[in-house]
Amino acid sequence: MRVFGIELRRTSALVLGGLVVVLLLGLLFWLPPAGKGSTAWTRQWWTMAEWVRYALIFAWPLTAGAGAVQGLRDRRSGVEELFASTPRPRAQRAARTLAALAVALLAAYLVVVVVGGVQVASATSHLVWGWVPVALVGLVSLVAAAWLGMGVGRLLPSPLTPPLLAVGAMALMVVAEAAGDRGYPFVLLRPSATRPESVFAHTAESVSAGQALWFGGMAVAGVLLFALRRWWLGVLPLLVGAALALPVLPTTSAAATAADPAAAELVCADGLCLTRAHERERATLAGPAREALALLSKLPVPPTTVRELPNPVRPEPRGPEPTDAVWLDLDDLVYFRSTPLPATRITELLVEGAGTRECNARDGSPDREVVVRAVTTAWLTGHLTPLRNYLGEEDPELNPLAQQALSTLNARLAADQRAHVEAARQALAACTGTAWTALTGEPA
């Protein structure tokens, strides 16, 4: 252990580990998509592992370049010929250096995972272990980058090797990211994962299996390039790893993700149905859900439950939805944010559009749909919230239209008011673009 400790201090392992921690945590805390919505890296176990993998798009090239710097050490120190003349096997001397980098990267990666895991544990009660292989593959890929960099640095002992290797690795990552579906399954050979889009879908097991074979072969290749005198032997594990991995990896982006039935399972209590993934939010949503159902009881055929939508993929525009429930998409409500929404605001969002989600139908007028949603909400709550444009200012065209539509609606008999609001609600739920006609009787 004493010798290993000396090797840790002599090499760039500790510096590299510190840089990886700072870079990964900096990206995860300051990269806007990683901290927002239900897929934030601190909210679910799967998304935490996938966001850490996504951040490797920057950490992996850095690690490969740092490994190349380490591979140049003997040449820079002028002891390469001296060590080559000793009877001690090169592989035995190289083992400690390889282990030092691996241990430093393991510690750095664990620090990042622990920081995320502590926050995830306080944000969700949905505990799963399927994310562990995704995280482990990320660790293997980092170690493989460092070892391959060491091998390349020894093979090409030039001061330009580390920066060129890092830039080349980054360029390959960008190309793979831009290739999209056209590059499958080759794009899955990159260490970074696709950014998570839903808490109800995750990286398929076949992706982790194929990537483990690929990065395992890369790690062995790096060891052989660094430790053996016959450099061409190091190419063989890389070829074998690719040959084993490509048949295992999915050939489309759809096959690269798998639905998570456990996360999407609904748990219902007191008229509120939430998924297992978001069961922790029941205490906050139960009150607003009851209040929303009480307001919607004014309708002739009111909904009886508030149900979360466990959609792995969010279609645009959405299709028709049944009207027996208020369908809840927490991301549509912008529910997950640094400052929690007040209970009154959550109630207003649930009641909006008479308990329907935004449709953005291709037929009809989107502006008229916005007005209908505001008017039906005002009829239920008793007050009309001003409509605002993209600048945050009150819309000079839609607000007078909403005031006129609400006045016309309130001038009708009570039974007619309920009938028109119910008809508008049915049209909004069906996503047909006819809600304006149903509410006012006028053509859209």
Describe the structure.
With 444 residues, the protein is mostly helical. 58% of the residues lie in helices and 5% in strands. The chain contains 18 helices and 6 strands. The protein has helices spanning 2-10, 13-30, 45-54, 56-71, 73-77, 80-84, 90-123, 131-155, 161-179, 205-227, 235-245, 261-264, 282-296, 343-355, 366-381, 398-410, 414-430, 435-440; strands spanning 201-203, 257-259, 266-269, 272-275, 305-308, 325-328. The protein has a 4-stranded mixed β-sheet with strand order 3-4-5-6. The chain has a two-stranded antiparallel ribbon with strand order 1-2. A hairpin with a 2-residue loop joins β3 (266-269) and β4 (272-275). It is elongated, with a radius of gyration of 29 Å.
Given the structure, what is the number of helices? Answer: 18
Strand content: under 5%
Rg calc: 29 Å
Strands of the biggest beta sheet: in what spatial order? 3-4-5-6
State the end-to-end distance.
79 Å
Which structural class should the secondary elements be placed in? mainly alpha
